Amino acid sequence: MPKVVDADQYRKELLYQSLDLFAEKGFANVTIRQIAKTLGISTGALYHYFPNKESLFEQLVEELGHQELLVLNSAMAPRKTLLKRIEILGQLLLENRDILVKHTAIWVDFYQHSQVETLLNNRIFQRIERQSREAIAELLGISDFRLARFISVSIDGILVDQLGKNDSTIFAEQVALLMEMLITYFEKYPEKSSLNS
Fold this sequence. Notes:
Elements: H1 7-25, H2 32-39, H3 43-49, H4 53-75, H5 82-95, H6 97-112, H7 116-120, H8 123-140, H9 145-165, H10 168-188
Helix pairs in contact: 1-4, 1-6, 4-8, 5-10, 6-9, 8-9, 9-10
């Protein structure tokens, strides 16, 4: 009797298995043959799921973004105060540091080896960025997406800083400082969050 394979689940497994390879070698330095070899499948089988390396990468980014949003959304509790939600955001960053740094390494490498137009016109990347800002805005009760983007970019900066250091102590200090800044900001401007009203 032939083995029944859930194609979508298998595709996701291939994506997650390729994550370490992209993080270790970088997007530009990995060939589709190397990916197939690392995954233990033929290049033909890999092409069945992904027409090219760029498609595999886009789907990986989409899946990682989806998983990050699930984690963020699962942490939201409707009756939590703004202070508690800021603490939750900080805790999520600390708990997921290693995987977030790995995601950041992959993104930075991809950005360095891509044309600006490719990045700006990619609907998947645009959607993931928008959803991330919306999730932060919802978590903190923010209606100003400029502020949500600033918070998101600040988190990205902390993660990029880890690429050169990979130091969990420095990471924890930076996250704590960002959380303190958010608390101070929302204390000074309580109208900026609906959770303060």
